[in-house]
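Dissemination and training. As part of the outreach component of the grant, students in the summer workshop were shown how a complex can be specified as a set of sequence lines and then modelled as a single object. The example used during the hands-on session is reproduced here so that future cohorts can follow it. Participants entered these lines:
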Amino acid sequence: MRTLSLIMIAIASIILPAAPASAQLKVQVVGEEYVPMRIAIPDFGAQGPGAAEIARDLGEVLRADLSSSTAFSLINKASFIERNLDIALPPTFGDWSVAGIEAQALVVGKVIVTQASSTTSLTVQFRLYDVYGQSQLIASELTVPTPLDWRRLAHKVADEVYSRLTGDTGYFDSRIAFVSKTPGEEGFRGRLAIMDQDGANAEFLLSGFSAVMNPRFSPTRQMILYGAYVPHPVYPQATLLRTYLYDISNGRQEILAENPGSMEYSARFSPDGNSIAFSRVVNGNADIYIMDLARGSSSERRLTRDSAVDTSPSFSPDGKKIVFESDRGAGQQLYIMNENGEPMTCPSGAREAACRITFEDGARFGDPVWSPRGDWIAFSVQRRGQFAIGVIEPSGRGFRILTDGYQDESPSWSPNGRVIVFQRTASKGAGPKLYSVDLTARNTRRVPTPRDATNPTWGPLLK
Amino acid sequence: MRSISMTALAATMALAVSACASNPPPEPAPAPTETAVVAPPRVTPPPSPPAVPTPPPRTGPAAGSKADFAAKVTDRVYFDYDQYNLDDDDRRALNAQVAWLKQYPTTRVEVQGHADERGTKDYNIALGARRAESVASYLKAQGIAADRIGTISFGKDKPLDMGHDEAAWARNRNSYTNIIVEAVS
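and obtained this result:
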């Protein structure tokens, strides 16, 4: 369940009797695809200085969030019959179910700006109604200490509505970190940046580092792992590749696993955020290691021991398995191994150090990322001269291509495992941009960034 | 780690909120001054073309300098697609590097591995590392002390040629021997 934060207060005051559980309004699912629910969101009411403008903008962000998912179909405001709804009163349900509108769900809300002696806070109250069931599904109130945070309120309302109607957790009140690229710069240059999931509020995170790669969000906290090319401390003309841990909340960062003569990169958090898996190159050979963050390098364990390239590790949601990329067999393929280093019994019946899960002829797989729900592994695949994003079940079944750009790579899951954000180079020589796609391959959308962008990583829901 | 203390949690949220509240312009400013705890590192500028000092009359690059190395030997060897083995041409070029390095025993090198843009970022870093290691191992086998040689891989992210065709890719699959300590004269 959602954890309430100190700055947000949610109350559920039931005005109307809830519909019986058997008749609860829910977005229908066919296969894995949502059947979009028709939802009406009239502009919210407003009370207090500046509230009208915030109400209008908040409504736009709320509608944009819900329509960016595949679960909802937003009804055109121009068609609405009932206007100026009062949040304190039930709506006229017949006005919303009438032919031409046919809303299944209705959101009514009010924005309140409260000025105390020296502070101004922002509150949103809203109700979610089942139009045909003529019942109220949510009555909630959320407050932030400053009206500047109005976008977060919009995302939190969207998350509550999405969660109530799909039964899944939301993902709108979350952030995406990425590497910001200045067009024309060399490929290894780039700065760590972060933005809201919808592209708003983009900003840089680190001032000094100019050659950052592969940022990876903690699934539990506002912390990011990233790789960076940095000067050698003794021979400044030489370059090292190191992995860092960055705490967004206090700006603190630390270097992980600093070994002379090795490179560390491609680090990812375990699902509890307490450990990392990463690649280390020693004498030209890349292998996978894991390390407990609190205990440091003394807790390192080496998981692969062969001359093949073993890289891009990603944990399963239970933390017990790791999917990775290796060329130990035929070209670059995806494999799964045990986190504890024990051999596995593969579908072939053989006991192996790791089980291969991709088999398509002539295709080269990379960037595997295990969904936080556990049901899918996203990857990039190079086939027929193009890079696409796809998904496959951990069993190796269900191989499916989701995107068809010229070069799509570096996928990252939304915190609920429903949407994938990735990096797209649309044509030869084009600048890389960020896109998102639903796991059913529908709804490929551009995620706006101020400049070119690579290596998106989707963070957890904010608290 | 799940049980973060309430104060830490509150501080985190307060900071997260104030970050949201800062309402920055859409184009991030390029040089904020705060937050770097580690001394801001500067990344080595691209190694070529080498900086040639203003030439005094009738002399070339200073003996034992990076420019001297670039003028006298082939500083880059090339690889086939997804390969990291050395052929006879590569070994001839590396033998010249070895001779130069033996002539200037106080110099140090960083062997940089590079890959073309086909393949994932992570795989190409590993592939570039294999190429750098091929060259570094050869230099060591020819008698250059291991502590004079370092390796780094830039994968596909520091291409010599910005093109996107076979010719560019062939140029971008290379290992570059970068002089990081010149001989002092």
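DSSP finds five helices and four strands in chain B. Students were then asked to discuss how this feature might be tested experimentally.
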